[in-house]
Amino acid sequence: MAESGSLVADGAVPSEPSVREEIARIIGEVLRLDDVAPDDDFFALGGHSLTASQVSSRIQRSLGVEVPLSVFFEQPTVLGLTTYVMTDGSTAPGPAA
Mean pLDDT in the chain? Predict the structure, then answer.
């Protein structure tokens, strides 16, 4: 069962825009920023590995998807994180062949 405040309720899949907005809200909250654009780089905004851990934890609580810290380095924008969350990481880029 989803936690209180979670976008994931009764197995319903949230829309991509709502996931994007939630991730931007979480990043803004953790980094204490008023506005986070979809293409803003998490690290350029002042994020680091400890704040990425906080964001990851809040994403998991709210959206029910675990986001490993490596994803923040591979896809450090709201759009990149949204793509990862929407696919539960199943289409995240893998190591180059």
Answer: 86
The closest alpha carbon to 11, from 3, 1, 21, belongs to 1
Q: What is the pLDDT of residues 20-45, one digit of tens each?
A: 999 999 999 999 999 999 999 999 99
- Residue that has been written with the tokens 């380095």 in this structure: 73
Q: What is the pLDDT of residues 73-89, one digit of tens each?
A: 999 999 999 999 999 76
Q: Which long-range contacts (CB under 8 A, 24 or more apart) does 36-45 make?
A: 36/78, 37/78, 38/77, 38/78, 38/79, 38/82, 39/77, 39/78, 39/79, 40/77, 40/78, 41/76, 41/77, 42/72, 42/76, 42/77, 42/81, 43/72, 43/76
